[in-house]
Amino acid sequence: MTAAVIGFPECRDPASRLARELGIPFSEAEVRNFPDGESLVRVTPCTGTALLYRSLDNPNAKLVELLLAAEALRENGAQRVVLVAPYLAYMRQDIAFHPGEAVSQKVIGQLIAERFDGLVTIDPHLHRIARLGEAVPGIPALALSAAPVLAAALDRDRRPLLVGPDGESHQWVDAIAGPLGLDILLGEKQRHGDRDVDIAIAGIERAAGRNVVLVDDVISSGETLIAAAGLLFDAGASAVEALATHCLADAASLARIEAAGIAPVRSTETVAGPTASLPVAALIAEAVRGEGWAQPEAPA
Fold first, then answer.
1. Active-site option among 80, 115, 189, 256
2. Catalytic-residue membership of 106
3. pTM for the complete prediction?
């Protein structure tokens, strides 16, 4: 069964890198938007496995276009359609926090499970569930760790001190620092609002004179990083940089992060932007091959 990668225009580069890594064809989905906001999607037919590639930051319109693309692929002969969504939205809300709220994880997870034959994502933001398959039931749902990609981006010779700014970042810091034998510190966060965060870092005196790397899965507003960096500089850190799987920060947030002395800020290419410098094609390709979803075309 042959396979192909189909990517949307805003993720052309990472999608085509995945195709090259797998040795299979790449094509770009065409999207037209009508005055009322509707989308028309056109794809190149694929008769084997279609790896439909799109990150789901700013997800609402993207989800509709993905559904249209998946249906077009099936109607034109695809035997299997796998969603490759390096960033997967709507996973954080797994309960109704207030009466009248939809549990978005359940709604979107079920939608994906009904429309796709498999899912690949990287470091999804899960809280109260242990496996992605609980949110996306009935299909192979692969949640990859970006830890190897982030670890490879570190300057090991400088022996940086890795800091997780809050409890949720513990798993990523451990996964990166453990194999490299690097020191870590962990912060605790108390959030009073989207841009009002208090941080405490136990053992912060160990940051004196050290190059510190803040590690997290997602950078959004950046306020947690800014608060942590202030404490680290006060403790005598010589430099503070940031490393994350996904960076959702807008230009204004990135400017505040830079003004706080955090540099460089690097993230993987799961979400396009100025910090997205770390490719994930090899990571995804290994998982795709492991599932038997991609076979290179035989030479003519």
1. 189
2. no
3. 0.93
